[in-house]
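Q: My labmate handed me this sequence with no annotations at all. I'd like to see what the chain might look like in three dimensions before we decide whether it's worth expressing. Could you predict it?
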Amino acid sequence: MVTITVVDQVEVQEIETAPLVGADQWRTVMAAADYRCECTGACGNRHSRTGLRCDATHDKWTKATGRIRLTAGPIDPITPTRTAVLLPASDLRAWCPKCFAGAARRARAAATERERRNDDANEAQGALF
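A: Here is what I predict for the chain of 129 residues:
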C-alpha cells in the first residue's frame, strides 16, 4: 500500500513495509490484528494503560524505539523456527519486538522451571524404590 499525500505542496509518501518472504501470510495476520501488537501480557507487561493489549502499531514512529516493525510470530514464542515457519496464519499473532522478546524470555523461564520440578519429582520417586 502506497499512499501519497500532498501537504503544503510537499509530497509525503507513506509506504507499508512488509517482509520480503511470506508477505501474504504476514498481511493476513496483520489485518486480523488491525496492524497492532496482539500481546495481552505474555511479555510481563499488563498493558493496563492501553486496554490490556499492547498499543504498538506497525510502522508507527516512537522516540524511544524508532519505527516499530511488527512480526507475525507463533502464539507460543518459544516454538522452534523450523516449526514456526510451517504454521498457518491462524496459529500466528502480531508481535512487536519488545513483547515477543519478553514473552519468549518468560516462556523459556517457565519451561526451565517445569523441567527442574520434573527432575526433582523424578529424584523423589527414585528415592522411594
